Amino acid sequence: MLFTEKSRRIWLYVNQHRKLSIAVGHVIVLAVLGVVWLSSAFAPAVFGALAQASCAKNDQTYVVRGGDTLGSIAAGHKTTWQKLTSYNHLSDPNRIFVNQHICIQGHGNTTVAKGGPTGNHPVVVGAIHGKGNPFPAGVCTWWASQRYYQLHGIFVPWTTNANAYQWTARARDFRWRVSATPSVGAIISLQPGVQGASAFGHVAVVESVKGNGHVIASNLNWGPDYSRITNVEFRPGPGVSFISA
């Protein structure tokens, strides 16, 4: 096929611009891939940094720590995860980030950071600490170990013979403190049949102690709301003990 000079110039022009278009296309693809990688690698940090909500004057600001869930935060502040989700305009209640600020409506303008190694109990010398939460999610033993870790930075160490009714004996085996006197942040252990506990007993974590000596404890797998974290009132007495490291 013979080219005239004009045809040759047109062909060269088209070919050069085709190569340029391909090169630009490669750059765009690489840029998109870079954005995807950065978002997947740094999304938690970015969202955590951006999620520093400014709470209203009469609200309490809660700073999310490792191990927190919206349900556990709600249980610790006598509200529900649904209310926190709505009030904080969260698109996904299962996705919160370390250092994110959660506004607790009408609880006073105080910044708190529950969880970690600080708590209400001095650690017993020689008490053995757990290395993780071995219990299946959704049962009362899982919540008690998880909540205790959130408050004190310590998981319970017993992983065998560890049904709820066995926790009092196992706590002594691992040199934890067992008492008949309630205290905020302690694990409450109920023997089977005591105050409605099942045949396997029940464990929960004391969130507050009332003036009459009764306690408000956060629970999982209790009563009809077995799949939700709920606050339930219990009273000290026979078959009830309080456990702390």
Describe the protein:
The protein is α+β, with helices and mostly antiparallel strands and 245 residues long. It folds into three domains: 1-50; 60-112, Membrane-bound Lytic Murein Transglycosylase D, Chain A, CATH 3.10.350; 140-244, endopeptidase domain like (from Nostoc punctiforme) (endopeptidase fold (from Nostoc punctiforme), Alpha-Beta Complex). Helices cover 33% and strands 16% of the residues. Strands 4-9-5-6-7-8 form a six-stranded antiparallel beta sheet. The chain has a three-stranded mixed beta sheet with strand order 2-1-3, with no helix packed on it. Helix 2 packs across helix 3. The chain is elongated, with a radius of gyration of 28 Å.
Q: Can you give the mean pLDDT?
A: 77
- The CATH class label of the largest domain is Alpha Beta
**What's the number of domains?**
3
End-to-end Cα distance:
91 Å
Please state roughly what percent of the residues sit in beta strands, choosing from under 5%, 5-15%, 15-25%, 25-35%, 35-45% or over 45%: 15-25%
Biggest pleated sheet: 6 strands, antiparallel
The rounded Rg comes to 28 Å
Which CATH architecture of the largest domain is right?
A: Alpha-Beta Complex
The helical percent reads 25-40%
Low-confidence spans: pLDDT under 50, at least 5 residues? 36-51, 109-125
* CATH superfamily descriptor of the largest domain: endopeptidase domain like (from Nostoc punctiforme)
Number of strands: 9
Order of helices and strands: HEHHEEHHEEEEEE
Structural class: alpha+beta
What gross morphology would you assign?
elongated
**Major sheet strand order:** 4-9-5-6-7-8
Tally of separate helices: 5
CATH topology of the largest domain: endopeptidase fold (from Nostoc punctiforme)
